């Protein structure tokens, strides 16, 4: 499949760019956008507790899982035969950067901003991530234009000025988002038209064809897998710790509940092979039984199959951090060992995916957690308030742009009053900063006027 020249070029590319990719990691870690992830919601609202995951800790875990996947894949015979080595630094960059575009208040904040921007290109977290890395983040600027906008309104900022291969690693959806959308169109995944020229450049530099369709690099596949594994295991760990759910809820789930979740999941409905409720329950039971067999719980006998013992283990996972972490670590290891690799015609476009049964299980776990926690009334009330705050801020700032900080106001004026600048400002807020800004406008006890915006 590959000529000697192809293999030589790939090996040289890996050696030549290693320093650049390490630089990219450093730039992402030291960026303001990365630091702000600490103040953004992952599973539970950030003001509830400092002891649950936030977007920052989640991103670090995705990078770590991604690195583990790379180490696992680089030992596979098919990669060694093709003389291919997956670069850990690129995957690390992708894991660290993949959630930078998330706005305050999680997915409800995303939906609220998308509604506010429905006549101007919408809002979508992945598209915003590319925009942050390639334009918004304050690192490199065209020195000829002080604010990053040329006199004719063109955006000439370079963001973190990352390598094209690093930018490619976070490009999950190769689809330009329509500028204007009807009211009934849901959130569309892809990239904004304002970054379409950058996407063409990425494709041209990575694979030599700027018109390539269905573009997704091997590093992006790995990052997506790591993200799904982290979501399904670490969010489960937080849910167990908070006692929103118990392991008993999962193992004893009835067929009607499984069918309901299957009917709500588009990903499971799109599968080539039809997924049944029996497939899910069988995989759940066999996987958790496998985990039980490998873990030693000091307070239990080795028998964990009875309902009483499962209930005891379930209770213990809520109370013991040691057992909880051992449990999720074993789950992650089980997922990684079932990852498959498929060489593509272009090496950069090779595919990495989970075995079907594990892929289905991860999707099921994500939907189960979403249904049990994110859709629970306790969380929905907090999220509803967050979405309302985002919409109010956008409406008020759009009516009176003097509310913007000086740097954003200058950008807005030079960019010919582009609403995307207002959207960028709000999307970059942490949950707490959004509440503070809202409080300055509407609270009876707002922040001091001397506290910087």
What does this entry look like structurally?
The protein is mainly α. It has two domains: 257 residues, Hypothetical protein af1432; 139 residues, no CATH class. Helices cover 59% and strands 2% of the residues. The protein has a two-stranded antiparallel ribbon. A hairpin with an 8-residue loop joins strand 1 and strand 2. The protein starts with a helix and ends in an 11-residue tail after the last helix. About 4% of the residues have low confidence.
Please outline the helices and strands:
Layout: H1 4-29, H2 32-36, H3 55-74, H4 77-81, H5 88-97, H6 106-116, H7 125-136, H8 164-168, H9 196-207, H10 218-241, H11 247-251, H12 255-264, H13 266-269, H14 277-294, H15 307-319, H16 321-336, E1 339-342, E2 351-354, H17 356-374, H18 377-399, H19 406-414, H20 419-427, H21 431-442
In short:
With 453 residues, this protein is mostly helical.
Q: Provide the CATH architecture of the largest domain.
A: Orthogonal Bundle
Report the principal-axis shape. globular
Element-level helix/strand string: HHHHHHHHHHHHHHHHEEHHHHH
Counted beta strands: 2
Strand sequence of the main sheet, in spatial order? 1-2
CATH superfamily of the largest domain: Hypothetical protein af1432
What structural category arises from helix and sheet content? mainly alpha
Helicity, as a percent range: 55-70%
In the CATH scheme, what's the topology name of the largest domain?
Answer: Hypothetical protein af1432
Rounded mean pLDDT is 82
Number of helices: 21
Domain module tally: 2
CATH C-level name of the largest domain: Mainly Alpha
Low-confidence stretches: 10-17, 298-305
The biggest beta sheet reads: 2 strands, antiparallel
